[in-house]
Design goal:
Elements (H helix, E strand, L loop, with lengths): L1 H14 L16 H5 L23 H7 L3 E7 L4 H11 L5 H15 L3 H4 L3 E4 L4 H7 L3 H5 L1 H6 L3 E2 L4 E3 L11 H7 L4 E3 L8 E9 L3 H12 L4 E9 L1
Helix pairs in contact: 4-5
């Protein structure tokens, strides 16, 4: 399936040349000029309840409720080119976009001085259910991380978190529905060694429902600290 999809994209690239999603210039999905105009978040409010200003990206009350120890976000989702890139990657299957999104993450990590928070840690991409993976052919969270793994000497662990329940797409649901939709969606695979600290990655953070459920499963298995990393908040 993945081999066929890649071949199909090569055919499409030949018949329909790539155009920048920002300015429509032919040649690539995101030209250097549009990339340089990307806006990064400078001040971190709590990304769960949107209150105050917290260096950790999450207030103490939401830390208690979600189990999340820290949240790192690169940029906003709505009315922003990064949000458009995420949508094209997930729903139009434009895998080439993943490299640009990975670079957005790297730029924010360096800009905010968060290298020591990320470097040499274990990183876990939020998994897709096997049904969704078969439809898409790839996990967008996993391929976005390629730029980060070598740069920060990260240990990729795809075996630690299991998506055990097929759920409706979160983007189509209201806030309360998102939490009920993901209830017990994840479990941790504790058959292998469990690190004490994990970087948990997903492409977008909206209500925090996905991260909350995934963190709950990881901490039940013995993980002590989870830093949630994402490209967009919206």
């Amino acid at each position: 399936m993945q081999m066929f999809r890649r071949l199909w994209h090569k055919v499409l690239d030949y018949v329909f040349p790539k155009n920048c999603l920002g300015c429509e210039r032919e040649g690539e999905y995101l030209c250097s000029s549009c990339f340089d105009k990307m806006e990064y978040l400078d001040r971190f409010s709590c990304f769960i309840c949107n209150s105050g200003a917290f260096e950790s990206g999450i207030c103490p009350d939401c830390q208690d409720k979600t189990g999340i120890d820290q949240i790192i976000v690169a940029t906003k989702y709505s009315d922003n080119l990064a949000g458009k890139l995420v949508e094209e990657l997930k729903y139009s299957y434009l895998e080439d976009i993943a490299d640009s999104l990975g670079t957005v993450l790297v730029n924010q990590i360096e800009k905010k001085g968060l290298r020591t928070t990320i470097e040499n840690k274990t990183i876990v991409p939020v998994p897709l259910h096997k049904k969704r993976f078969a439809e898409r052919g790839f996990n967008q969270s996993e391929i976005i991380l390629k730029n980060l793994i070598n740069r920060y000497s990260l240990k990729l662990r795809k075996d630690l978190l299991i998506r055990q329940k097929s759920t409706a797409q979160q983007a189509k649901l209201e806030r309360a529905e998102r939490f009920s939709n993901l209830k017990d969606a994840f479990s941790a695979n504790d058959k292998n060694s469990i690190p004490k600290e994990i970087i948990l990655f997903d492409d977008v953070l909206t209500t925090g429902a996905t991260f909350t459920e995934a963190v709950s499963a990881l901490k039940k298995s013995g993980v002590e600290r989870v830093v949630c990393l994402t490209v967009c908040h919206g």
